[in-house]
Every structure is written in structure tokens, then in C-alpha cells.
Specification:
This is Putative hemolysin. It comes from Jejuia pallidilutea. By secondary structure, the chain is mainly alpha-helical. The protein has a domain of about 40 residues. The chain contains 3 helices and 2 strands; from the N terminus they run H-E-H-H-E. The protein has a two-stranded antiparallel sheet with strand order 1-2. The chain is extended, with a radius of gyration of 15 Å. The two termini are about 15 Å apart.
């Protein structure tokens, strides 16, 4: 299971200042096996792989809950 990291304090301050609601949305998505392997090695490798993962799913239907 993938879980969001804690939000940056600066983002939380901005949200509180704007007084806007936060609506949690779950996006059904799956990246490549290589992406998950790189994620175990390094955050930098995972981040570097993200653009190609996004392009691979460019025209895929968006599933959310």
C-alpha cells in the first residue's frame, strides 16, 4: 500500500491561511515494476522515473474514489 508522506509545514500553513477545505481523493493507479524497484533503492531514482511513468499513463482513463 502506498501512503502519502507527511505534508510539508509550509503547505499546511498556506492551507490554514487560505481557510480552504482539504478533500481526500484516492486515485487508482499502478506504476511499472521498475518504478517500485527503484523506489526501494532511492527517493532520487523514484523521482527521476516519475516523468516516464506519467507519460506511459498519459491517455489512460482516470479512476478515482
Amino acid at each position: 500500500m502506498v501512503v502519502d508522506r507527511p505534508w510539508e509545514e509550509a503547505a499546511m500553513k498556506l492551507i490554514k491561511k487560505a481557510e480552504v477545505p482539504i478533500v481526500p481523493i484516492y486515485f487508482h493507479a499502478k506504476n511499472s515494476k521498475l518504478f517500485y524497484k527503484l523506489s526501494k533503492i532511492s527517493d532520487t531514482f523514484r523521482t527521476a522515473k516519475l516523468p516516464s511513468e506519467l507519460l506511459t499513463q498519459k491517455n489512460a482513463p482516470l479512476k478515482y474514489a
